[in-house]
C-alpha cells in the first residue's frame, strides 16, 4: 500500500526510458543501464523528485524517468 500526502490507495507509476544507441553502450550495454538505474535509485533514496532526465557515462541525455499519476 502506498500512502502519499495522507491519501491512501493512490496509484503512482513511473515510466523509465533509456535509449542505448550511442558509444557509452557499445561494449557494456547492461552495465551502463545498471549504472544509470543505480544513479536514479540514489536520487530516490535521497528524496529527490524522480521527474528527471537520464544521462550516460559520457554526459549525453539518453532517456528520462517520469511520474505518472493514475
Description of the structure:
This protein has 1 helix and 5 strands; from the N terminus they run E-E-E-H-E-E. With 70 residues, the chain is an alpha+beta fold. The strands form 2 sheets. Strands 3-5-4 form a 3-stranded antiparallel sheet, covered by helices on one side. It has a two-stranded antiparallel sheet with strand order 1-2. The chain is elongated.
Name the features.
alpha+beta; 24% helix; elongated; two-stranded antiparallel sheet; three-stranded antiparallel beta sheet; 70 residues
Could you give the topology of this structure?
Elements lengths: L2 E2 L2 E2 L3 E7 L10 H17 L6 E4 L5 E9 L1
Antiparallel strand pairs: 1-2, 3-5, 4-5
Please estimate the helix content: 10-25%
Largest beta sheet, briefly? 3 strands, antiparallel
Main sheet strand line-up = 3-5-4
How much of the residues is beta strand, in percent?
Answer: 25-35%
**What's the average pLDDT?**
88
Structural class: alpha+beta
Radius of gyration: 14 Å
Give the low-confidence spans: none
Give the overall silhouette.
Answer: elongated
> Could you state the order of secondary-structure elements as H and E?
EEEHEE
Helix count, DSSP H or I runs of 4 or more residues:
1
Question: Would you report the number of β strands?
Answer: 5
Distance between the termini: 15 Å
Amino acid at each position: 500500500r502506498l500512502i502519499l500526502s495522507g491519501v491512501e490507495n493512490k496509484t503512482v507509476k513511473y515510466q523509465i526510458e533509456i535509449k542505448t544507441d550511442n558509444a557509452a553502450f557499445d561494449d557494456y550495454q547492461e552495465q551502463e543501464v545498471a549504472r544509470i538505474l543505480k544513479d536514479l535509485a540514489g536520487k530516490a533514496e535521497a528524496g529527490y523528485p524522480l521527474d528527471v532526465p537520464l544521462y550516460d557515462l559520457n554526459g549525453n541525455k539518453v532517456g528520462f524517468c517520469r511520474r505518472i499519476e493514475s
